[in-house]
Amino acid sequence: MSTEVKEVKKKEPLFSKKNRGLITDPLNDSNPISVQVLGICSALAITVQLKPAVVMSISVLAVLSIGNVVISLLRNLIPSRIRIIVQLVVVASLVILVNEVLQAYAYDVSKELSVFVGLIITNCIIMGRFEAFALANSPWKSFLDGLGNAFGYAWILIAVAFVRELFGSGTLFGFQIIPHAWYIDEGGFYSNNGFFLFPPMALIVVGIIIWIQRSRNTKLIED
Amino acid sequence: MDVNKNSYTFIFATVMVVVVAAILSFASTSLKPLQDKNIALESKQNILKSIGITVERDGADGVFSNYIKEELVIKGGEVVESPDVAALDIDLAKEIKKEGNVRTLPLFIADKDGATCYIIPVRGGGLWGPIWGYVSLMEDANTIIGATFDHKGETPGLGAEISKGIFMDQFPGKKILENGEFVSIEVRKGDASGDYQVDGISGGTITSVGVDDMLRDCIKNYIPFLEKRAMAAKPVLEKVEEVSIEPMDSNTVKVDSLTAAAIIIE
Asked: Which of A153, A208, B9, B235 is 20 to 30 A from residue B73's alpha carbon, by CA?
């Protein structure tokens, strides 16, 4: 199994070019949302405001990087017939832990995320990385891969939330950005676009990000 | 070691489940006090919100004791003197399963700018889980000052809208008594311009029905007590005779003991 492969590569430096690639690739070339199109449901659901998007990103970061390490440590012990269930148990217990911690230390945020915290379990990115990467790689690499993919997920989420909160509510992190005097009610010319608050707009924003990304990064274009 | 043997698979699964269960129960018990504190502060916040006072959660404790003058425990229409459990600690989830007249119910009485407000905690079931809230009544024990609702896991955008302003803002000014009879507030579909109706949530029918049932079921049990209390506070009203027949009211009791104390001092 993969044990022998690991022995050979043991002398590899911690941040070799390959290892750095584990973090940087998911930001662009193999981004979980814009390239692999995973984890879309949460990207639609919690990007109305920046704050929950940031908290969701941090939660996914914690669950994905720790989960990857746990799965990687257990990779030679997990019976292959029940590996999906084992992955599910690991991710579910991590999510419950995150939820308990949020309820104790960030109650408002946990109320806001409510069902979506539970939905981290079903976030395809997490099971995807467990199955595709952590089961075959060393803990350190799996940790980097988890961080990389979580960052790749996070920047898209935050970018979408930025656009939606700014144009939908005129605020960022709850602070008013668009001057009050601009609004029609105050005699100005501006009005918030309510469409940005609805999930379809998240899909459109993600679509635009994918469009920009592919126009700049031509190796992503199929055919 | 062959990790794909049946016996190994069973052992692995068993050990994994035990380890995970131990970790989770440890986390759950050690974080419980902090979580309970958050929940307690939130109920105070919601109680205050139902009479129109918005506070930050951290400051809820102080503001709560400024406004809330009495925390009563009521059973069968009477105030329980020196109850075993504080009004805030009553587990409504258990009480609502009992028959109406044997329930131990909390009631909060606030003094907002000189006006008495009665705050009634309500609890019931929505589509996915429990729903709860606070309904506050004016001195006449009839007109609603405000209502707040919350839920455990109603569908976001549908049933969960009961905890949003768009639903809760309909309550102020509505009435629960029609010619002295308890009629509750009907959560209905369509025209809800009447004094005893509010508009339900499209797509959240089961939650809306849950709110309707919850209001009827919970407020009902306070009516006998509230009538007495409100009549005692305003003896000019027509039902004054009933009050004089049943003076078992905490206000009167207090006055009595005060007078008694005064007599002893004299």
From this structure: B235
How many domains does one find in chain A? 1
Task: Please give the Cα distance from B43 to B73 (Å, whole number).
Answer: 17
User: In angstroms, rounded to a whole number, what is the distance separating the alpha carbons of residues A184 and A190?
Assistant: 6
Dump the DSSP string for A167-212. Answer: HHHSEETTEE-S-GGGBGGGTSSB---GGGGSHHHHHHHHHHHHHH
Find, in chain A, the residue whose alpha carbon is nearest to that of B37: A104
Residues in chain B: 266
Whether A87 is covered by a domain: the verdict is yes
Across chain B, which has 266 residues, the per-10-residue mean pLDDT values are 85 93 94 90 89 84 86 84 82 84 87 87 90 91 90 78 87 88 87 86 88 91 84 56 46 46 46
- Minimum CA–CA partner of B20 in chain A: A93
CB distance A101–B23 less than 8 Å? no
Q: Please check whether residue A50 lies inside any domain of the structure.
A: yes
Question: Does any domain span residue A24?
Answer: no
Question: How far is B236 from B238, CA to CA, in rounded Å?
Answer: 7
- Closest Cα in chain A to B3: A79
Question: Chain B: nearest CA to A65, how far in angstroms?
Answer: 18
Nearest CB to A104: which of B24, B34, B153?
B34
Q: Which residues pair with A171 in a beta bridge?
A: A176
In a domain, A27, yes or no: no
Q: Please report the pLDDT score of residue A214 as a whole number.
A: 87
Of the partner residues B8, B20, B31, the one whose CB lies closest to the CB of residue A104: B31
* A1 touching B (Cβ < 8 Å): no
- Average pLDDT of the residues in A181-203: 83
Q: What is the mean pLDDT of chain B?
A: 82
Q: What is the pTM for the complete model shown?
A: 0.69
Helix axes A139-169, A124-132, angle to 10 degrees: 160
